[in-house]
Amino acid sequence: MEIKVNNKAHSFEGDSKPLIEVLEACGMPLVGIAVAIDNKVVRKAAWCDTTVVDGNSIIVLQAVCGG
Predict the structure, then answer these.
(1) Which of 7, 29, 35, 39 has its CA 20 to 30 A from that of 46?
(2) Residue range 39-58, pLDDT digits in tens
(3) CA distances from 6 to 26, 53, 61, 63, 66 (A)
(4) What does residue 52 show for φ and ψ, rounded to 5 degrees?
(5) What angle do CA 63, 28, 52 make, to 5 degrees?
């Protein structure tokens, strides 16, 4: 399966993967982030139950402090 995470191509075996596994495999922090798949926000409570499939585009935004 071919997907994009923050506009960077990633390949995974199989037809689908749980979102949480994709985030972990890409080295994303699991706190302080917001995630959208194909421009639809996915609540953190649904990360384990949300399936990523071939062609999906995932955007991960991380909160930062500063001024």
Answers:
(1) 7
(2) 999 999 999 999 999 999 99
(3) 10, 16, 9, 15, 22
(4) -95, 130
(5) 110
